[in-house]
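Translate structure to sequence.
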């Protein structure tokens, strides 16, 4: 292991050549017999022990897979026999702890109430990853119940996993709820991780941890075997260090799952999301951006990295179009909260019915468990309580979400059609950032630099339904032109 700690035991003094390799770089070394999956897994396990559990103690990993080395050895043997399953053969992947695995690991959504017998079946996306030759390295911590336990609980905290830290500045928030996935990838614990999002839970931690976070169109990736909030907007998605790695991970997880209620259009079946990742992929593209950066010096001064990002895009050949982007006027926080509460009441019981050997079997059991075992922190559960107490009927639930999704989708669709855009880009301080997930539309968060406090900054590309291939191309063009991603400094 080439990582040592100096001084205050907070900062890696020397990074190993293996810590921040891309998937392609790892694969090339494996093809040349310069690296094996076993060697890489051993290295990452040592790095996790050194930096996640000791030293800066990022606490991004909630559980390691005891079978990881055996899986890696099996995949090495396959490679030696000339059988390579694809680009992810032998590549370690971390999964958020609300994604089912039928192995020795728990799937708990960070809740002690969910610790017991492991899931009986892999989530569909996990089946796809195993078939692609990925090594499931472990599970990552998260904001408990994907940030739907209580709003006063800190981002990145769970009763089972404790508090995850931001590897760039340890005292800063890692954001939630896929905080462990974002922090782990940033800290070099694995090249790939999978997060999940209902509203902001991939893109927010990607932003502050300085990694690429892709929130796909709802239904592009199966939700089978993932602890739900609402099937109307839940989705898993890649969290990686590069756009190409995100596209490779997306490729591996796609597939037709009969249990997925949203059916994809035939036009995107079998799409290779790496196909448009070309050096000049911004040339001739029309990208909408917040008009305040065109008309207000104050906006440029408040977010100089975003202003610089726009300059980079324009220099790389993009045509930038100022647009006004806001939440739908009729939408209220109360209606959205009601929709989420009804979603939990509708979908969580169905998921719990797939699990046996747990301390709870219902939402009411969960509330009672948390009342009886609140933990030393004494955090509440007002969000879960609201879900339990809300009146539910299927027609009202569906109509509520139809209105929310239609109005939010119209905001994006109208801008794209009016200005003939290939995509849009937002700074994280603009209003309307929740429009994308509430519409069920795709977006990709990209590193844009570091602020004066050492915390990563970012830009957010987004577009219409099923536009992942185009958005990845835009993000790739920006990534290649900006070279903005920074490795963590592990500052106190």
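Result:
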């Amino acid at each position: 292991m080439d990582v040592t700690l100096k001084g205050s035991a907070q900062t890696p003094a020397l990074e190993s050549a293996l810590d921040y390799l891309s998937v392609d770089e790892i694969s090339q070394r494996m093809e040349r017999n310069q690296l094996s999956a076993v060697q890489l897994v051993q290295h990452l396990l040592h790095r996790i022990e050194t930096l996640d559990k000791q030293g800066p103690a990022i606490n991004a990993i909630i559980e390691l897979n005891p079978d990881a080395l055996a899986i890696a050895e099996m995949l090495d043997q396959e490679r030696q026999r000339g059988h390579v399953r694809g680009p992810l053969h032998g590549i370690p992947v971390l999964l958020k702890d609300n994604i089912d695995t039928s192995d020795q690991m728990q799937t708990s959504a960070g809740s002690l109430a969910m610790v017991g017998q492991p899931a009986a079946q892999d989530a569909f996306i996990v089946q796809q990853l195993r078939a692609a030759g990925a090594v499931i390295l472990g599970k990552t911590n998260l904001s408990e119940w994907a940030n739907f336990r209580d709003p006063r609980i800190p981002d990145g905290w769970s009763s089972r996993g404790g508090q995850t830290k931001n590897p760039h500045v340890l005292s800063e928030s890692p954001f939630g709820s896929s905080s462990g996935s974002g922090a782990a990838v940033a800290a070099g614990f694995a090249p790939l991780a999978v997060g999940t999002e209902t509203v902001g839970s991939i893109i927010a931690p990607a932003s502050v941890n300085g990694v690429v976070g892709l929130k796909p169109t709802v239904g592009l990736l199966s939700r089978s075997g993932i602890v739900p909030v609402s099937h109307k907007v839940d989705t898993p998605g890649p969290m990686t260090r590069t756009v190409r790695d995100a596209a490779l991970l997306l490729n591996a997880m796609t597939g037709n799952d009969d249990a997925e209620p949203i059916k994809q259009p035939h036009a995107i079946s079998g799409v290779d999301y790496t196909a448009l990742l070309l050096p000049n992929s911004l040339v001739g593209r029309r990208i909408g951006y917040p008009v305040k950066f065109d008309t207000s010096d104050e906006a440029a001064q408040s977010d100089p990295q975003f202003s610089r990002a726009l300059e980079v895009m324009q220099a790389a050949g993009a045509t930038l179009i100022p647009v006004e982007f806001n939440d739908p006027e009729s939408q209220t926080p109360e209606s959205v909260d009601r929709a989420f509460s009804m979603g939990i009441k509708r979908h969580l019981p169905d998921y719990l019915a797939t699990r046996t050997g747990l301390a709870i079997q219902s939402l009411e059991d969960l509330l009672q468990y948390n009342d009886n075992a609140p933990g030393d922190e004494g955090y509440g559960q007002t969000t879960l309580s609201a879900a339990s107490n809300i009146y539910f009927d299927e027609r009202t639930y569906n109509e509520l979400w139809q209105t929310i999704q239609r109005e939010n989708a119209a905001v994006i669709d109208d801008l794209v059609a009016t200005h003939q855009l290939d995509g849009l880009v937002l700074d994280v301080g603009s209003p309307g950032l929740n429009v994308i997930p509430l519409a069920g539309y795709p977006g990709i968060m990209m590193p844009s630099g570091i602020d004066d406090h050492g915390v990563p900054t970012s830009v957010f590309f987004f577009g219409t339904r099923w536009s992942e291939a185009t958005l990845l191309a835009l993000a790739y063009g920006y990534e290649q032109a900006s070279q903005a991603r920074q490795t963590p400094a592990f500052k106190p």
